Amino acid sequence: GRVVAFEPNPGARAVLETHIRLNDLGGVARVVPAAVGAAAGEVAFSAAGADGMSRVGSPNPGLGAPSERITVPLVALGAWCRDNAVTPD
User: Fold this and answer.
1) pLDDT digits (tens, 9 = 90+) for 11-48
2) pLDDT higher for 1 or 30?
3) How far apart (Å, rounded) are the C-alpha atoms in residues 19 and 4?
4) CB–CB of 28/2 below 8 Å?
5) Residues 6+ apart with CB under 8 A from 75
6) What is residue 36's predicted lDDT score, i.e. its pLDDT?
7) Measured between alpha carbons, how far is 65 from 73 in angstroms, rounded to an integer?
8) d(CA 71, CA 83)
9) Strand 29-32 vs strand 35-37: parallel, antiparallel, or unpaired?
10) Sorting pLDDT into bands at 50, 70 and 90, what band is 54?
11) Rounded to 5 degrees, what angle do the CA atoms 58, 47, 74 make?
12) What is the pTM of this model?
């Protein structure tokens, strides 16, 4: 099988990519630096380091750490799969 992970948070993405490399999973796991939504474009993202509680839109009130507001790519999943010859199952 193959895994495609969409991770817009730069901090969390760095941790994920490190784990993929350390576990020698580069041949089956791919990380896409984008958020997934209904249409392609860009979106405001509140990132808090590598915290998985970061999110699109306003900062997560459940985070103890301050968030950094960044703009990230937004992809439509169907279009991304078509453009990358991926058939989800």
Assistant:
1) 999 999 999 999 999 999 999 999 999 999 999 999 88
2) 30
3) 14
4) yes
5) 6, 32, 34, 35, 36, 37, 40
6) 96
7) 23
8) 23
9) unpaired
10) confident
11) 75
12) 0.88
Which amino acid, one-letter code, is at 36?
A: V
The pLDDT of residue 84: 96
Q: What whole-number distance in Å separates Cα of residue 84 and Cα of residue 67?
A: 32
The residue type found at 17 is E
Instruction: Give the whole-angstrom CA distance, residue 39 versus residue 1.
Output: 27
Tokens representing 29 are 């796991």
DSSP assignment of the chain: --EEEE---HHHHHHHHHHHHHTT-TTTEEEESSEEESSSEEEEEEE-TT-TT-EESSPPTT-SSPPEEEEEEEEEHHHHHHHTT----
